[in-house]
Amino acid sequence: MSSHKFLLHEAQDDVGVAVADIKAGEEVMGVDIHSGKEFHVKSNEDIQLGHKIALKGKKKGETLIKYGENVGKVTEDIKVGDWVHTHNLKTARWDYGN
């Protein structure tokens, strides 16, 4: 691990944002952009640049935090190192109570 592969935008975030493609099984390092604290996670899946990697386990129905904000509800259990996207997260962005 020679460089950061993901960024943590807020300390309370459940996910980091990939700043490079991440391969399944890869041990990756990320950094909190405010404190400089580094995190190490083993990726369970391929994760593309710009996509989310889980830094905390989440259960179906729980709220997911990114950028310090509620970004949606988890639709299936998520483990640390999982790719977080539309297959396991329902965005709050366009949720009008339906």
Automatic annotation (TrEMBL):
InterPro entries reported in the protein's UniProt record: SAF, SAF_UxaA/GarD, UxaA_altronate/galactarate_dh
Domain SAF: 13-90
Keywords, sorted A to Z: Lyase
Gene Ontology MF terms in the entry: lyase activity
Gene Ontology BP term (one): D-galacturonate catabolic process
The keyword Protein biosynthesis is assigned to this record: no
Name this protein carries in UniProt: Altronate dehydratase
Organism: Desulfitobacterium dichloroeliminans (strain LMG P-21439 / DCA1)
